[in-house]
Amino acid sequence: MYEKDPVKIFVVEDDPAYTKFLKYVLGLNPDYEVEYYTTGKDCLANLYKNPAIITLDYSLPDMPGEKVLGQIRGHDPNINVIIVSAQEKIHTAVELLKSGAYDYISKDHETKERLLNSINNARNKTSLIKEIDHLKKEISEKYEFEKSIVGTSPAIRRTFALLEKAVQTNISVSISGETGTGKELVAKAIHYNSKRKSKPFVAVNIAAIPRELIESELFGHEKGAFTGAVTRRIGKFEEAEGGSIFLDEIGEMDLNLQAKLLRVLQEREVTRIGGNQVIKLDVRIIAATHKDLAEEVKGGRFREDLYYRLLGLPIVLPPLRERGNDVLLVAKHFLDQFATENQMRKFKITPEAQEKLMQYPFPGNIRELKSIIELSAVMAEDQEIRPQDISFNSTARMESFLYQEMTMQEFMYRIIRHFLNKYDNNVLEVAKKLDIGKSSLYRYLKEMEEAGI
Q: Which InterPro entries match (predicted)?
């Protein structure tokens, strides 16, 4: 949670009696840091101190109130200026508020209450702006490439290189890869490292929305456009204005809607269902799929023109089984994250457990590894993760080894290691299951280890 800082307030007032009154009123709150000035010139000379709120007497001896207001706004439009005046002319108040004053308060018997309320509201507004800026900074830091995407393998380094290119322009990006490889994480990393990071990131999972609702979800609708449209709805493209829209599982979109999406992308405009207003768009498109869209085009299931419109900069995310020791780096990352979230001491993965993780093909990729690691932390007796703490509960079978390109000797080694882990290194049991002699098993393992396999 963002902590509220003390509020710096400037009081600009030339009436000694009223200044004394304000000192008393504002002194009641220890969170206020107040400085007092009697002229507009002195106030303006000290703006470098970055006050959050200024209470400004409209009738100062050296400068008109509207001139002081204008120079304050020119210095920093986020400073909340509260005009305090003996005048009660509605026209003057309206003009000052139009010029950027936060509030206009007349000097009368209700001034104290109104002033305190106005300062408190201005303070809350300032704190909210700071909190939003703080959260935006946190998000940007969270999605820095090296922090959000863990790994040092050649495959992931190639991905980093493409990400660096993606953030330098507004080119559309298409992300492909198996389920669980982190496509949405990469999309967020692109957005929050680009010039659009202060604008919305809107994610839409095409596969998760009923077909009859996708058009309304993407493009919005007007009240009465169809049965159940009781109010106007803003579509996801409008929500993402100035930012990025992430179209996940784009390969699941039916051909009819593909044609409508193509028009939106070509014209850079959208019209809500049941409406006539054409809404111009400034949105970056990031699309993702686990399918081979080129094959979908050949099969007539995806429009070729839309395919080329979305292709932009293609980024193919490697499956975890092709990332070598990244498995252990990502596992350690998830373990540390789990420990922090649950206020636990950090865990260590034993060499035996590391070996077990390295032998598994992770058909569910990053998502599956996260689930396995978090469960292992729960099952661990202490802060060490051992082989027995790691359970592979996926539907993966031994054929998953075929995902990897290895020599016959390497396949045999993996098979033996798999059974040793499964039967808690019981060599007699493994020899029996594989129908080989115990001495042959030992000899084979020794040869493979000496060969560095």
A: AAA+_ATPase, AAA_lid_NorR, CheY-like_superfamily, Homeodomain-like_sf, P-loop_NTPase, Sig_transdc_resp-reg_receiver, Sigma_54_int, Sigma_54_int_dom_ATP-bd_2
